[in-house]
Amino acid sequence: MPVKGVEVERRGEVGWIILNDYQETVEAGFAEPEGYEPLQVGLLNALEEFRWDSGIRVIVITGKNDGAFYRVSRRPHYDVQKHADRLNPMHSPYMRQSMPASRSMTEILAFIEKPVIARMNGDAIGYGQALLWGCDMIVAWDGAVVADVHTGQGDVVDSDGEARGFPWAVTPGDGAMAFLPVSMTAAKLKEFMFLSRTWPVTKLAEMNLVNYAVPMDQLDGVLDEIIEKLLARPAHVLAHTKRVCNKRLVEQMNNVQDLASAYEMLNFVSHGVEGRMDMTK
């Protein structure tokens, strides 16, 4: 069995999706014959499982370790050739698996009939922030930061002061562009994406992009109150309400997601063909 990027738990009527540490999972995958199951694939399977489970009313997504909701590897990780090769479509099937799964993930987050809550117990950097914007509500630790690393070229810094992300600039294709333009002004969106800004979650709360930014010891109290109120409402009413709320979001997703994903893959291919992913040079 490949090393998994996510774990799932059922806690009464709440389905929990727990995100494992990205770098640890990828590195463990190299020691296993079946390798690593891309997080996007595991996440997609977990959401589909909970979607059709009539006993699950609410879905929570969180990080396994406090401090990291989901963040890409540290910058030096990508200087190792085998890790660079994993992101090179010319050498590895990883991108050919993860990119279609990312598009499907974006779609299921937009269409799934059940409330999906992000329990953001740490930094959301890279795919973690794209996933964040697809959730219906976000309850966040107020010490966390959020960044999209795609254009960062390795200069994105997490809340611990460590650089994160690969050194190549590529188009953001993971799903953030399907969701974020609905909520962020064009000028702020371009600053965030063009420069891979690292913004504290408190700033995002002020921008009304995060529902709650609270100390870690208050995170579960706020989450429990939301879940209790959701479970007190009819499931079919919440499903219909979500569908109405997401109409504009679905329109945005249909307009841009395929193009963003295609450009991202094209950028990775270009870097591979032109030798920029050869870390021995």
TrEMBL record:
InterPro entries: ClpP/crotonase-like_dom_sf (IPR029045), Enoyl-CoA_hydra/iso (IPR001753)
Coiled coil regions, renumbered to chain: none
Record's protein name: Enoyl-CoA hydratase
Recorded GO MF terms: catalytic activity
